[in-house]
Each structure stands twice: as structure tokens, then as C-alpha cells.
UniProtKB/TrEMBL annotation:
GO BP terms: oligopeptide export from mitochondrion; potassium ion transport
Lineage of producing organism: Eukaryota, Fungi, Fungi incertae sedis, Zoopagomycota, Kickxellomycotina
Protein known as: Mitochondrial potassium channel ATP-binding subunit
Keyword Protease: no
Domain ABC transporter, first and last residues per copy: 587-825
GO MF annotations in UniProt: ABC-type oligopeptide transporter activity; ATP binding; ATP hydrolysis activity
Recorded family membership: Belongs to the ABC transporter superfamily. ABCB family. Mitochondrial peptide exporter (TC 3.A.1.212) subfamily.
Primary site of residence: mitochondrion
Composition-biased stretches (Low complexity): 68-80
Pfam families linked to this entry: ABC_membrane, ABC_tran
Superkingdom in the source lineage: Eukaryota
Annotated source species: Zancudomyces culisetae
Sequence intervals crossing the membrane: 276-298, 373-392, 459-481
């Protein structure tokens, strides 16, 4: 069969597919009108405008024209004995109609181009089936849930409006991603904002140097071993067709009576290539085992290293970094992003080397066997791949639409679950149901479209490959008959053709994976390469603070291939040694100005000045937004002032070793964080060297020993804390005990009783009083002023951290001013 014949078959297949679908649409539609009028399109023929119209009122009420009803009644009366069969035909026919019309819609859609999805809004009784949002069309396949307490039209309009907004939102996101896929690293959005953010959808591609740093340089020795084993495996796979051809040639010659035809003679000639073939298959299996094992070890090692470097980098950022980043995105970078990167690296390294080497070797074998047959094969393959490439563009477009709607549906589900209280409060669960139903219908529609295109693509692929193989057999058979090649050579040739075809398909898939991996590498490297501010470094001083990116830990591939010694992070030594700062005099704020990075125009503190003497208990109180919590965060060095200085004794806070400083302070917040482990391990989190007696004493001071050992907790200190196993007051007292166990030089209590009931508040206040009466320097931030009455100094803050008055409780009460008003209001 010639190249012209192949091209004719392919073109005829495409034309006949289109014609068959149009004919099938018409036939099934007429069949529908008799078996199941509810699912009947209003026109039995395909209109020139390529639209099918459905009356929404008739659709919802199930009404149809009188002639159709009369015909159906007659049909039903004539088939009373076959009700069950009619029902089955109707049910089956509904889905047949949906599938056939699906094919019609998308063939015609690609011929005419996409139309504006809003063109049919002016006529609510007409539905356009050619655009993206053929919602009512999907009701052919999905059930309808009626709304409650609202009219159908209002509900439909509301849901349609929200769907339109989500469509536009995710369409913009998809366009931005597509622009990046084309190589753009920066993109100006419609609002003019920059998209250079490391976690935006428009992160830049990773460079080859980034790829080298992340996946090649750290594992050079292991990669060399993988390359050698992969090349050996490829060589074995390439040699198998040759030996198979030799074996077939020997067998065919003996069957033809050539040479020694005795049994012993036949065995002597057949046995060597048979043994060789068996050895090759055995070697293939062993090399595959080693190769897969080494690739698994390689993938796990680069994922461990990358995840630890990312985690170390993120955890050493300023708090402004966390204010500006989404927690979900940070977690995604550390989990799914690294997992994708690992899988892509393994696939590209393992399959890439194998595919390229097999392609090169197979093509060499093809030319070695027959130049003429190979040139014929190349010409035919070019025609085949051109046809498949053209249709593949349609497949990609369908996949992109499916991805967009899937993201939109995920967003709807997430938003509904996160805001379930508000939704239930308004009694609008049915609205969210209809919204999700609408998105699910679109998602189903796009999945069916993608499945349809994928089926056509695979069908064309199989037909094309079949036609190609027939051509090779016909042309090759003629060469065998002419004596130019042997039958064994033809078999070897066909096996090499299959190897080449599989390898080329693999290379095509790997190119797509490589593009995706460059995106992942770009996002990971952009974060790792970004310099971390010196305020977040711990024990290395300033000389080596920006050299942590791509630090390669010590590693040794053991007998398991998976174990590795990961070097400790640079910030670990001070924490492990427990070094503590010297605090002999005071903490002093001098002309401190501060604003959050998310609101730089709003100054939270303006020229704030305050001195906290060693051993004092000082309380900050004031209205919300006066800067109380900001002051505590500045003391913790979670943020740095815009201007001004905080001194510890006479040393600027920014010049102190961060880990050493934080070893000396403890904080108790309004909503304490306890980990999912035992009570004892939660307490020891602040001091791993604490003895049992020290733990018990800290619990006694914090008023939590009684409920821990008194039977309230089933296993005492060994009770595992879960989400709802403790009350708020119990959690708060355990947090206080944990802070005490650290033996801090400075203790910060930030709204420690704000969310407690009266009984639990009393226990916590008593614990705070115990701390106030100790020698620990205590900073108390409170709305409830009963926690600050015993403080040595009470500071009342006004707007932007301005101190409006200060003194003891009794002194401020005698002034009968701000504090007095707050106490009486409280």
C-alpha cells in the first residue's frame, strides 16, 4: 500500500467519522421522538446554525406538543405487555442520544469556532449547545434537584451569575499559565500587578543550571551508575530482535531442507541462538530490577534533600513572609510539588536515557537490515504523525477546558465547606447544591468531550499503526520474495519498528514531563535562591548567611540504597546546646516605628518608647488595634522595626544571635498550640532535658497538676492529646506549665484568658499571679483587666502605641481616667 493510499484512508476515516456522527444524531433523535419524547431535541435534523433548541418551560414541566403525546400514547397502548422493555429502551436511548449529540456538537464546534458563551442569555428559552456552558444539555444525563423557598428563575440567574464569575476567574488563571508555558517569565496582569511572586501561578521556568543543582550535582555518582545500567539494559533490548531474527532464519532454513537436516544437526544450529535469547531475557530481567531499585533510591534522596532544604528555608523567613503567603500554598510546595518533582526526575532520568538510546540503536538496526524499507517507513510515518498531530491539538484544547472547570468545581467545594456555618445560617444549602451541580454538569460534559476525543485519537492511532504495519509487511514481503532480505531479518525489522515506535511515544511524553518539571524546578529554586534576611539566621554570624541554598547534605548510599545522613541545619546548634542570653538590666524600646508589610501605609507604632526592668511584671492594656500584640511580636523578634531600636541591656536586638535569644523567652498565647502527642511530651517541648520533678513542679505552679494526676485524664502524663480531648482552660494551663519549664528570663502572656469561662479563668489568673510573684520578667497583654491587677506596672496604650498613662493598679484607679474607665467597662 502506498503513501497515497495511507493518506487517503486517514482522510476518509476523518470524513466518514464526521458524517456518521451527523447521520447518527438525526437517526437517534427521530428514535427518541417515538420512545422517549422527554429527551427529544426539537429539530430532528441538524440546523444550519448548528444549534439545538429546547424550551425550558417544556423541559421543566415535561410538556410536549400534542401530536408527540398522541403518538406516544398510541405507542404505549399498543405495547402494554412490553412496559419493562420500553423503559429499558428509553433509558438506553437517552444515553445513546447524549453520546451521539456530544460528538456532533464538538465536531461542529471545531469547524465553526467557539461562540460567545453569553449569546443565548437574551432568550432564556433557547440553549446553545456549541459553547462551553451547555448546562441544560447535561440534564439529559444528570438529575435535577428543585430549589426551595425561591423561584426557579431567580435561582438559575443567581447560580449562572456565580458560575460566570468563576469561569472568568479561572479562565484568566489558565491564560496566565499558558503564557508561562510559552516561556514568559513575567506577565503584566490586567490590574497592573507584578507576577514575580514565588508562589504565583506565573512562576518562571527553572534554568538548566537550576536543574543541575537540584537533580544532577548532589547525586552524580548514583546517576552515573543509573546511566550505565540503563545503557546496558537498552543494549540488551536492542540485541533481542537481532538474535530472534537469527533464530527464525535458522529454523526456516531447516524447514526448507537447507544444510544438515538431521535432528542432531538441527539442534546444534538452533541451540546457540536459543541459549543466547534466553540469556538476554534473563539479563533484561536482572538489569530491570537493578535499574528500578536505583531509580527509587535516587528519587527518594532528591526528594528528602529538596524537602528539607525548602522546609529549612521557609522556617527561617521573617514573619512578613508568612503574612504574605498562603498556608495552603506553602504546604503544597513542601508536599505535592516535591512529590511531582521527584516523580518527574525519576521518569526523565530512567525512561529518557532508555528511550533515546533505544531510538538511536533501533534506527541503526533498521538501516542495517534494509535501507529501502527504512526510507519507505520514514515517509509513511511522517504522514501518520502529521495527521495525529493535527487532531492532537483538539485533544489538548478539550483537556485544558476540563482542567479549568475541574479547578472551578474544587473551589466551589472548598468554599462551601469552609463557610458551612454562614451557608447554614442563611438556610442556603440548596443554592450551594445547585452551584456545585451546575459545575459538576459542566465538568461531566467536558470529561465526556475529552473522552470522546481521546477515543477518536486512539482509534486513529491504532488504525494508522495497523495500516503502517501492513505497508511494511507488504513492502518487506516483496523484498523477501526478491531475496533482498531473509524472513528472519523481516521479523527482526518489525521488532525494531515496534521498539522505535514505543521509544518515540515515550520521548514525546517525556518532553511534556520535562516542561512540567522545569516549572516545578523554577518555583522551588526561586524560593531556595532567594536570600534570607540576616535577622533570621542563628549561629553562623553574618559571613555565611546567604549561602544555604542548594546545600548538599552528607550522604552515603548504603546496602538499602535509601539511607542517607542529612546534615543538620545551620540553625540547630544553639537550640541543641541551650545557650541563653545574658539579661541583667532591661529591655528598652527607643523611638520604634512599625507597620506590617501587608499594610505599609498604616503605622501600628509611632515613636514608641518603653523600658521593662529585669524581674518586673508589666502589663499592656488598651483598645483593639493599639499595638499591644505588635509590641510582643517585636520583642520576640518575629518582626523588625521600620525605624528605631530595641535594646536588650545595651545590645541592639537585631545584633543578637536569634536562637540564643529565643532560648531565653517563652510565650503563652490566647489559643495555645499543643501537639498530637502525650501531655508529658507537650510539656517537655520547651525543655528536653527537664526531669520528672521539674515537670511536676511546673504543673503545680500552673495549677494543672490536679487535673492531670487527679483522674480527669485517663493516663495522666501519658494521655495523648487530640483535638477535643482538653478544655480551653486545661490547654492554657498546660501551656503555662510548658512556658515555666523553660525557665525563661522573659515570659510573654498574650491575651491568655480572653477565651476562657469564669471557672477556668480563675485557675489561669491564679497561675499568672504565681508567675508575677516570681523573679521572672513578665509581659502581660490583656483585655480582661483582672489578670493585670497585681502587675508591677500597667501601661495603657492609645492610638498607634501612644502611652496615655502608666502606673500600678491602685495609682491608675485613683486617677479615674482611661484605666479607670476600662476597669468599670470590663
Amino acid at each position: 500500500m502506498s503513501m497515497l493510499g495511507l493518506n487517503t484512508i486517514l482522510n476518509t476515516t476523518a470524513i466518514s467519522s464526521n458524517s456518521t456522527i451527523r447521520l447518527g444524531f438525526s437517526v437517534v433523535n427521530k428514535l427518541n421522538s417515538r420512545l422517549n419524547p422527554k429527551y427529544k431535541f426539537c429539530n430532528s435534523s441538524i440546523p444550519s446554525s448548528r444549534r439545538a433548541y429546547i424550551s425550558q418551560s417544556n423541559w421543566q414541566k415535561g410538556n410536549h406538543d400534542k401530536n408527540t403525546n398522541n403518538n406516544n400514547n398510541k405507542s404505549n397502548n399498543n405495547n402494554n405487555d412490553n412496559d419493562e422493555g420500553d423503559h429499558n429502551r428509553k433509558s438506553t436511548n437517552k444515553y445513546v442520544a447524549g453520546f451521539i449529540s456530544l460528538g456532533y456538537v464538538y465536531f461542529t464546534n471545531h469547524e465553526t469556532g467557539s461562540e460567545d458563551r453569553n449569546t443565548n442569555k437574551s432568550n432564556p428559552s433557547m440553549l446553545d449547545l456549541t459553547g462551553v456552558d451547555q448546562l441544560s444539555y447535561n440534564q439529559l444525563l444528570l438529575p435535577t434537584k428543585h430549589s426551595r423557598n425561591t423561584t426557579t428563575s431567580n435561582l438559575d440567574n443567581y447560580v449562572s451569575s456565580r458560575i460566570d464569575i468563576l469561569h472568568n476567574l479561572y479562565l484568566k488563571k489558565r491564560r496566565r499559565r499558558n503564557n508561562i508555558d510559552k516561556g514568559q517569565q513575567q506577565l503584566s496582569l490586567e490590574d497592573g500587578s507584578s507576577t514575580g511572586d514565588v508562589f504565583s501561578d506565573t512562576s518562571s521556568f527553572g534554568s538548566l543550571s537550576n536543574i543541575y543543582k537540584l537533580i544532577i550535582a548532589p547525586e552524580a555518582k548514583l546517576l552515573t551508575t543509573i546511566v550505565v545500567t540503563t545503557l546496558c539494559l537498552s543494549a540488551v533490548n536492542l540485541y533481542i530482535p537481532k538474535v530472534t531474527g537469527d533464530l527464525i532464519t535458522v529454523i526456516s532454513s531447516k524447514l526448507a531442507g537447507v544444510g544438515d537436516t538431521t535432528m542432531s544437526g538441527m539442534i546444534d544450529e538452533i541451540l546457540p541462538p536459543a541459549k543466547m535469547l534466553a540469556g538476554l531475557f534473563l539479563g533484561n530481567g536482572l538489569l530491570t530490577l537493578v535499574n528500578v531499585y536505583l531509580l527509587s533510591a535516587y528519587g527518594e534522596r532528591i526528594s528528602i534533600r529538596t524537602r528539607l532544604e525548602l522546609f529549612d528555608n521557609i522556617m527561617n523567613r521573617k514573619m512578613t513572609f508568612f503574612d504574605q503567603k498562603s498556608t495552603t500554598e506553602l504546604i503544597s510546595r513542601l508536599t505535592s510539588e516535591v512529590n511531582e518533582f521527584k516523580s518527574q526526575a525519576k521518569l526523565i532520568v530512567g525512561q529518557g536515557i532508555k528511550a533515546v538510546s533505544i531510538t538511536a540503536g533501533s534506527v541503526y538496526q533498521l538501516f542495517r537490515i534494509s535501507n529501502r524499507l527504512t526510507l519507505f517507513l520514514i515517509g509513511s510515518t511522517g504522514v501518520m504523525y502529521l495527521s495525529l498531530w493535527i487532531y492532537g491539538k483538539l485533544l489538548i484544547a478539550a483537556r485544558e477546558k476540563s482542567k479549568q472547570i475541574n479547578e472551578m468545581m474544587h473551589s466551589i467545594i472548598t468554599e462551601a465547606i469552609e463557610n458551612s456555618r454562614v451557608i447554614k445560617g442563611f438556610g442556603n444549602t440548596y443554592i450551594e447544591y445547585e452551584l456545585l451541580k451546575r459545575a459538576a454538569e459542566e465538568n461531566q460534559h467536558q470529561k465526556l468531550v475529552f473522552g470522546f476525543h481521546m477515543g477518536v485519537f486512539r482509534a486513529l492511532s491504532n488504525i494508522s499503526v495497523g495500516v503502517l504495519m501492513i505497508n511494511v509487511l507488504l513492502f518487506g514481503g516483496r523484498l523477501v520474495m526478491n531475496g533482498e532480505i531473509s524472513g528472519g531479518n523481516l521479523m527482526s525489522y518489525l521488532m525494531n519498528v515496534q521498539n522505535t515506535e514505543r521509544a518515540l511515544v515515550s520521548i514525546g511524553e517525556l518532553l511534556g514531563q520535562f516542561i512540567k518539571m522545569k516549572g516545578n524546578v523554577g518555583r522551588i529554586s526561586e524560593l531556595l535562591d532567594e536570600k534570607v534576611d540576616s535577622a533570621n539566621w542563628t549561629d553562623q554570624g553574618n559571613s555565611d548567611k546567604n549561602n544555604r541554598a542548594h546545600t548538599v547534605p552528607n550522604k552515603n548510599l548504603t546496602s538499602t540504597g535509601l539511607e542517607m545522613s542529612v546534615g543538620a541545619s545551620n540553625g540547630a546548634s544553639s537550640a541543641h546546646t541551650g545557650e541563653r542570653m545574658e539579661f541583667n538590666d532591661s529591655i528598652r524600646f527607643e523611638d520604634v516605628w512599625f507597620s506590617y508589610a501587608t499594610r505599609p501605609e498604616h503605622k501600628v507604632l509611632k515613636g514608641f518608647n518603653l523600658e521593662i526592668k529585669k524581674g518586673m511584671s508589666i502589663a499592656l492594656c488598651g483598645k483593639s488595634g493599639s499595638g499591644k500584640t505588635t509590641i510582643s511580636q517585636l520583642i520576640q523578634r518575629l518582626y523588625t522595626p521600620d525605624s528605631g531600636t530595641i535594646y536588650i541591656d545595651d545590645v541592639p536586638l537585631q545584633d543578637m544571635d536569634l536562637q540564643t535569644y529565643r532560648n531565653s523567652i517563652s510565650i503563652i498565647e490566647q489559643n495555645p498550640v499543643l501537639f498530637t502527642t502525650s501531655v508529658l511530651e507537650n510539656l517537655r517541648y520547651s525543655n528536653l532535658d527537664a526531669s520528672h520533678d521539674q515537670v511536676v513542679e511546673a504543673c503545680r505552679i500552673a495549677n494543672c497538676l490536679e487535673f492531670i494526676e487527679g483522674g480527669a485524664l485517663s493516663n495522666g502524663f501519658d494521655t495523648v492529646i487530640t483535638k477535643d480531648s482538653l478544655s480551653g482552660g486545661q490547654k492554657q494551663r498546660i501551656a503555662i506549665a510548658r512556658a515555666i519549664l523553660r525557665n525563661p528570663k522573659l515570659l510573654i502572656l498574650d491575651e491568655a484568658t480572653a477565651s476562657l469561662d469564669a471557672q477556668n479563668e480563675k485557675y489561669v489568673v491564679d497561675a499568672i499571679d504565681n508567675l508575677v510573684n516570681s523573679n521572672i520578667t513578665v509581659l502581660i497583654i490583656a483585655h480582661k483587666l483582672n489578670t493585670v491587677k497585681n502587675a508591677d506596672l500597667i501601661v495603657v496604650l492609645g492610638t498607634a502605641g501612644q502611652i496615655v498613662e502608666m502606673g500600678t493598679h491602685d495609682e491608675l484607679m485613683r486617677l479615674r481616667n482611661h484605666y479607670y474607665d476600662m476597669v468599670n467597662t470590663d
